[in-house]
């Protein structure tokens, strides 16, 4: 590596591919793949080249902001901001309890350290309820996963003979390392096969051997038919099942009764194609499969997640190389708050008493420690005594990203106090009482906990490329100051730890045990305390990494064997791991295991997979033979949020990031549908839902299914133009969506199944 190439990572999607970059005058000027990154190994996609657009975001903040009564904002200094935010949140806590404060967010595609430090502020305030974007996509999957496996799961496509993608377009969205290379390899190998369930001929579907182009919203029927074919044709992996699954009786019975041809009709897929795909999965040595938003944001999504896992259980596609596996998490993403991980949701609390396993007003289950995103506005806009009265929102943009933007705005305005911690004046920040500006991900030490590798799992702590922008603070500093202002700890607690940290990490470990032994209550605010104590001892600009010291200790304690196999041995293994993290600018392998080790992570007593969830078998039996609901006034189904090359959730507030000034959301429409409506490519149209309408341009898209149209996710941001006025770029999707249009069990939105009408303009 020549001197002026600096290692970092791409922040555009959750893969965080390792990069090397050159910088000049506050800009990232050259970008190339980092071959030394343990996971991406020299891979990147075209989006990385445009990454500087994040750093040059138009709405970047450079001072804390306070909302005036007239709705405008004034800049205030940090001391005032911290003192007022702490006092106002403490006042809500004192009047109504910490459980009336909701924390939303904690990280986005590449930055999870806010989630580490906010734990301390939440503990200092007694906050009990949290939510984030996982609770609008992954909670249905987590709910069934907890009941069937009891551990997190990922998928080894690299070594799989057959790959199955359910409502997932990895060519655009990635979701596993080096996705395009892996897809190409599978497509080119006559002995391997790809099965894609997607109404649209996505880039991935176009490479597939079996493209099941289902009617939108019919995943449950399709997966039920596939599972039923396995059982009805005797294709299930009996020998494997005998050793590894339990409670299969009622499930096999229900599947044996599924009318496969009728279900194929509901899906609009040729029955022989369905049977061929099932046969290909069943006869493969290894099958890896992944579901994503196409199903998780559709009707019957929780049932779909269950049926997907039945296919895994029936084919033996778990715990072997080339199948699904239980990964070893460096830090679990859905930690804190208990609830769903155990899979239990009790409903036995006395009247008027709180039950922290359910959301306080709507009573939705708390899963992964999270309440459903789609319930948040109802948990606020009510006179229920247990309603939320304050929110802390960090590194996320719920006004824009959650269903029903208008309703989210109303909810935020109804709170006694709201605080946003972000790098930019986002749509959400523009509704908050206080906005605290964070340094960007290239201006501090940052990292993500999207670490899911099967055999050699890696973590990448990135070093800053630039000094923090004037007026901003890193999240460690923000939360340490809030904690101090809330009286969580003071110099007396910090001093001994700081002195030890100046000597060595091993001294710190000893001092930490002593301090925590003497005052166990400090454990809950350990991350912010560590920032104050260890941060100053870390190399220049690396203070935000201090909290990772604690994560490394917890990890080596919980996964001793896997850490040892990665070389971190002995009573101070956590320190050795932390040192390795600091010393590895391209990332470090922190855990090693074999695919077979997955079995040890299963929560069930015998280390077996439970196939039977009574509610899910009931839902399977209750599937409507007519298919999902239709609305004659809204004849199209809008997929409200599609991953394209120009999207990166809402994290890039810079319309130049694609083609100068041309960031528009196009509505993809099948050419025959467009012809029927008299629309040419590029024609302006209004797309209308029961909730609202938006203007956009038609894009003729051969890959669309008739009757199915789609808009990109994350666009439609209200961004400051160079002239200083706010301009919208593209369609703000969630103005079109309704918070009540959601899964009945876990509350995830049906964004992929929004009934809509299209009207030509002019
Ligand atoms: N470029 C880019 N990459 C990203 C992101 C981004 O914003 N931009 N976001 C990241 C995030 S946060 C996530 S969660 C992932 C999501 O990644 P994906 O889920 O793969 O992304 P989508 O494009 O939303 O949906 C995938 C597919 O679902 C299909 N689909 C629509 N309706 C249905 C249906 O009823 N059934 C089925 N089976 N399929 C249907 C769509 O046609 C689409 O091809 O992407 C991540 N990667
Ligand atoms: N209709 C519809 N809605 C959707 C989707 C869809 O497909 N359709 N997709 C959904 C999905 S899957 C997801 S994951 C969500 C994503 O939506 P959100 O969870 O809201 O996340 P992002 O849009 O990634 O927003 C990240 C925020 O973090 C800020 N940020 C960036 N760097 C930093 C930093 O270093 N520190 C701090 N404090 N802040 C920072 C950015 O400015 C931005 O405001 O959107 C969801 N919304
Ligand atoms: S796959 Fe994701 S992280 Fe990797 S270069 Fe592309 S956008 Fe960036
Ligand atoms: Mo997501």
UniProtKB/TrEMBL annotation:
This is Molybdopterin oxidoreductase family protein. Residues 343-352 have a biased composition (Low complexity). Residues 336-355 are annotated as: Disordered. GO terms for biological process: cellular respiration. InterPro entries: Asp_de-COase-like_dom_sf, MoPterin_dinucl-bd_dom, Mopterin_OxRdtase, Mopterin_OxRdtase_4Fe-4S_dom, Mopterin_OxRdtase_prok_CS, Prok_molybdopt-oxidoreductase. One of its GO terms (cellular component) is membrane. The keyword Iron applies. It holds the Pfam family Molybdop_Fe4S4. Keywords: 4Fe-4S, Iron, Iron-sulfur, Metal-binding, Oxidoreductase. SUPFAM superfamilies: ADC-like, Formate dehydrogenase/DMSO reductase, domains 1-3. GO terms for molecular function: 4 iron, 4 sulfur cluster binding; metal ion binding; molybdopterin cofactor binding; oxidoreductase activity.
């Amino acid at each position: 590596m020549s001197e002026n190439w600096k290692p970092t990572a791409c922040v555009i999607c959750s893969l965080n591919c390792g990069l090397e970059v050159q910088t000049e005058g506050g800009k990232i000027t050259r970008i190339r793949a980092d071959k030394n990154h343990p996971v991406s190994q020299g891979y990147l996609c075209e989006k990385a080249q445009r990454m500087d657009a994040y750093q040059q975001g138009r709405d970047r903040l450079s001072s804390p902001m306070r909302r005036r009564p007239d709705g405008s904002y004034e800049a205030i200094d940090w001391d005032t901001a911290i003192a007022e935010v702490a006092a106002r949140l403490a006042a809500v806590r004192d009047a109504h309890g910490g459980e009336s404060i909701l924390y939303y967010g904690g990280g986005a595609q590449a930055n999870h350290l806010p989630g580490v430090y906010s734990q301390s502020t939440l503990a200092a305030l007694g906050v009990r309820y949290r939510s984030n974007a996982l609770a609008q996509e992954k909670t249905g999957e987590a709910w069934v996963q907890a009941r069937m496996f009891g551990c997190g799961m990922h998928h080894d496509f690299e070594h799989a003979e057959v790959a199955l993608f359910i409502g997932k377009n990895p060519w655009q969205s990635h979701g596993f390392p080096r996705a395009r290379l892996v897809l190409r390899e599978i497509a080119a190998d006559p002995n391997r096969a790809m099965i894609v369930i997607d109404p649209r001929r996505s880039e991935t579907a176009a490479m597939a051997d079996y493209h099941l182009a289902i009617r939108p919203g019919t995943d449950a029927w399709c997966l039920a038919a596939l599972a039923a074919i396995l059982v009805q044709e005797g294709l299930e992996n009996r020998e494997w099942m005998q050793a590894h699954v339990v409670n299969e009786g009622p499930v096999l019975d229900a599947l044996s009764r599924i009318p496969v041809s009728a279900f194929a009709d509901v899906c609009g897929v040729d029955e022989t194609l369905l049977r061929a795909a099932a046969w290909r999965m069943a006869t493969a040595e290894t099958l890896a499969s992944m579901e994503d938003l196409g199903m998780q944001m559709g009707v019957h999504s929780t049932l779909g997640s269950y049926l997907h896992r039945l296919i895994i259980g029936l084919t033996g596609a778990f715990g072997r190389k080339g199948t699904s596996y239980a990964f070893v998490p460096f830090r679990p993403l859905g930690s804190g708050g208990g609830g769903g991980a155990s899979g239990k949701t009790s409903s036995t609390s006395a009247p008027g008493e709180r039950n922290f396993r359910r959301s306080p007003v709507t009573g939705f289950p708390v899963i992964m420690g999270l309440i459903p995103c789609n319930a948040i506005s109802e948990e606020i806009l009510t006179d229920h005594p247990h309603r939320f009265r304050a929110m802390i929102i960090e590194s996320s943009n719920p006004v824009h990203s959650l269903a029903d933007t208008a309703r989210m705005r109303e909810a935020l305005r109804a709170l006694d106090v709201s605080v946003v911690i972000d790098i930019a004046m986002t749509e959400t920040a523009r509704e908050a009482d206080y906005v605290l500006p964070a340094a960007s991900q290239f201006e501090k030490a940052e990292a993500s906990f999207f670490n899911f590798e099967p055999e050699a799992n890696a973590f990448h702590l990135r070093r800053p490329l630039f000094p923090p922008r004037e007026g901003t603070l890193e999240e460690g500093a923000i939360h340490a100051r809030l904690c101090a202002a809330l009286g969580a700890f003071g110099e007396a607690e910090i001093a001994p730890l700081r002195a030890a940290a100046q000597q060595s990490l091993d001294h710190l470990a000893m001092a930490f045990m002593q301090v925590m032994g003497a005052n166990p209550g400090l454990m809950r605010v350990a991350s912010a305390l560590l920032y104050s104590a260890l941060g100053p001892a870390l190399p220049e600009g690396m203070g935000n990494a201090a909290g990772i010291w604690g994560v490394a200790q917890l990890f080596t304690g919980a996964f001793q064997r896997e850490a040892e196999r990665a070389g971190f041995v002995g009573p101070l293994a956590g320190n050795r791991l932390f040192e390795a993290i600091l010393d590895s600018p391209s990332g470090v392998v922190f855990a090693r295991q074999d695919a077979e080790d997955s079995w040890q992570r299963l929560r069930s007593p015998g280390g077996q997979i439970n196939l039977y969830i009574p509610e899910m078998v009931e839902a399977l039996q209750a599937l409507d033979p007519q298919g999902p609901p239709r609305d004659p006034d809204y004849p199209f189904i809008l997929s409200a949020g599609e991953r394209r090359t120009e999207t990166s959730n809402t994290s890039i507030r810079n319309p130049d990031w694609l083609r100068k000034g041309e960031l528009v959301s196009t509505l993809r429409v099948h050419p025959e549908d467009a012809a029927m409506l008299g629309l040419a490519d590029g024609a302006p149209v209004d797309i209308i839902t029961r909730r609202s309408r938006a203007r956009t341009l038609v894009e003729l898209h051969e890959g669309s299914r008739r009757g199915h149209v789609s808009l990109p996710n994350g666009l439609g941001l209200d961004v400051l133009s160079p002239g200083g006025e706010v301009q919208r770029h593209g369609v703000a999707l969630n103005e079109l969506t309704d918070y009540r249009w959601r899964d009945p069990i876990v509350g995830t939105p049906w964004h992929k199944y929004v009934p809509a009408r299209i009207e030509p303009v002019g």
